[in-house]
Amino acid sequence: MTAARKKKKWWQWLFAYPTIITSAIGAVPQYTTWTKAVMLGVPWSAVGEAEEQKALWTKNFECSWKEPSQTAKTTLTTSRNERVTVTLCPSGDALVAIQPPGAEPRFRWIGFDRFDAGRTAMTDGPPALSVRAAAAAEGARMLVQAEGVVICVTRDANGFIVRRLQLPDGRCQEQIVNPYTGKVVEVRPAAACTKC
Fold it and tell me: Which member of 15, 92, 112, 190 lies 3.0 to 4.6 Å from 172 by CB, making a disulfide possible if both were Cys?
């Protein structure tokens, strides 16, 4: 009996203990999520949201910097002196930029599809109007404040979003935004305030 045990190959033990196989196969999605989290620089629990943010940047890329006549844009200041800018796109998606005092802004897309699932109770017209009405109601509690003008938006070789702005004082700068996290990872002076 002892000689027979020594002759067993490693794969024969897998058949003897199917729990090992089941556990290894069942953990593959967790390994995939963990790998994506490391690659994207987000917690593993936020991988789905990070991928959704990237998809919304791609879907609404042109809208993220178009003229106000083509989008609805509102800038407000909160009681904590944080500037909040909401850009509403024709798709119904909204880009929210929050800029704390003395810090770079952080961007977050709110996909209309998330609201559309619960829209059955809403009866006040087109989807974008409902989002605008909510933004206007929130804006009644805040003060409007001017911001820099977004001249253009492009992507760099790494897939990051590059926003070129003309600041109120006339200077130009570029903000490099990670589309997965919405964080500004770099700010640099722009050579000129021209289109990209």
Answer: 190
CA contacts within 13 A on the Cβ side of 76: 17
User: 126: which 2 tokens?
Assistant: 């087109």
The whole-chain average pLDDT of the chain stands at 76
91 three-class SS: coil
Q: How far apart, in whole angstroms, are the C-alpha atoms of residue 127 and residue 115?
A: 9
- Distance, C-alpha 11 to centroid of its chain: 45
Q: How far apart are CA 161 and CA 155, in angstroms?
A: 5
pLDDT, one tens digit per residue, over 116-170 is: 555 444 444 444 444 444 444 343 323 223 357 888 899 999 889 999 988 888 8
99 C-beta neighbours (distance < 10 Å), count: 20
| Structure tokens belonging to residue 109 | 């897309």
The tokens describing 117, both together, are 């699932």
- Asked if residue 85 has pLDDT above 80, the reply is yes
Determine contact, residues 86/130, Cβ cutoff 8 Å. Answer: no
